Amino acid sequence: MQSNIYVICFLIIILTIGCQKADDFLHIIPTPEHFPAIDYPIKNKPQLEKIALGKSLFFDTRLSVDSTLSCASCHLPEYAFSDTLAVSKGVHGAVGKRNAPSLMNVAYVPLFNKDGGVTKLEIFSLLPIEDHSEMGIPAIQLVDRLSGDAHLQQTAQQLYGRPLDAFVITRSLAQFSRSLISAESHYDDFLKEGLALNDSEERGRELFFSPKTNCSKCHNGVLLTNHQFESNGTKVEYLDQGRKLISAKETDRGKFRVPSLRNVAITGPYMHDGSFDSLAEIIEHYNKGGQKHINQSEFIKPLGLSNEDKNDLIAFLHSLTDKKYIYN
Questions:
Q1: For range 63-75, the mean pLDDT
Q2: Is the N-terminal amide bond of 30 cis, ω within 30° of 0?
């Protein structure tokens, strides 16, 4: 019962939106008790009406040049706001460059894109909107297209005191994205209330956090990520230079942002290019010690896992799925 309090509170606030003033919605996203506080931008504090505007835009196909794709086309709610393809398909049959990440708990991500090239969530949404291989519409053209929508214009004026423009679009999309908090998995029940994992999940948890695997060297904390950039040795040579594109350092070639493992069982395909289809493939990759890329993390080494070990790790990773959120 206690584990559902923050969800219930959020739903009550939504139901009472028509009776509240805009200023009452500051800080309205309940933070799970075992999660860190969210560091909201001073100029974009959460407000429920702005979240609602962002949600409507997130599912609006007018945000693509041919009006066939929305943000939700590549970030599917039932898959923790990730995609089911190795790389997503854009407008006019274009193929994306990288695997679409989950947006769950994106409020805690300090740097965006797999190479960390974007520093603010408010800017992040412009990349897929304007990218020719994704939604393919310049921001100026998008604003012009939506200018005739009287409801959107009225809402923008009420909430932001300005006509609907790129500022309003990106800020409201960021508001919606930050509201996507996932903290109701079986593992969360274990963390918050001490509810036992099953035998296989518990063995997998102990193995995951043990020196034998070193998994928790990169996937640690309640979000199961250190937010750093690492090469996990999936390639001998990387066509995608990863973090090197931003830092220009050869030591960053093939390094990508360490993702959270929350909901990992439903967010495949995996890796920056979607080259792994299953959790079993991933575990076998680490078990073999990677491909020995020159910048491969020192923590990736042959593990000597038994079949039972592998199955237990997979069981633990499945315990990270927030079924209460995904199925609601």
A1: 97
A2: no
pLDDT tens by residue, 196-205: 999 999 999 9
Residue-wise pLDDT tens digits, 221-249: 999 999 999 999 999 999 999 999 999 99
- Write down the mean pLDDT value for the chain: 91
For the chain, the first-to-last Cα distance in angstroms comes to 16
CA-to-CA distance for 44 and 50, rounded, in angstroms? 9
The structural domains of the chain, ordered by start, are 2-178 (1.10.760.10), 186-326 (1.10.760.10)
Q: Please state, in angstroms and rounded to a whole number, the distance separating the CA atoms of residues 64 and 137.
A: 6
**What confidence category does residue 21 fall into, taking pLDDT thresholds of 50, 70 and 90?**
very low
Between vectors from CA 121 to CA 118 and to CA 124, what angle results, nearest 5°? 55
Per-residue pLDDT, 328:
67
Count the alpha carbons within 13 Å of 248 in the hemisphere toward its beta carbon. 0
> How far is Cα 175 from Cα 68, in angstroms, rounded to an integer?
23
pTM above threshold 0.85: yes
- The closest alpha carbon to 313, from 272, 281, 290, 289, belongs to 281
DSSP per-residue codes, 3-19: GGHHHHHHHHHHHTGGG
| 17 residue type, one letter | I
Average pLDDT score over residue span 300-323: 97
Greatest CA span in the chain, whole angstroms? 63
| Structure tokens that stand for 70 in this block | 């929305």
Rounded (10°) CA dihedral 148, 26, 120, 59: -40
CA distance 42 to 172: 14
Say how far apart CA 269 and CA 259 lie, in whole Å: 13
Q: Left (φ > 0), alpha (ψ -120 to 50) or beta: where does 274 sit?
A: left
By percentage, how much of the chain surpasses pLDDT 90? 88
In angstroms, rounded to a whole number, what is the distance separating the alpha carbons of residues 114 and 296?
Answer: 16
Tokens of 322: 């927030």
Count CB atoms within 10 A of the CB of residue 134: 25
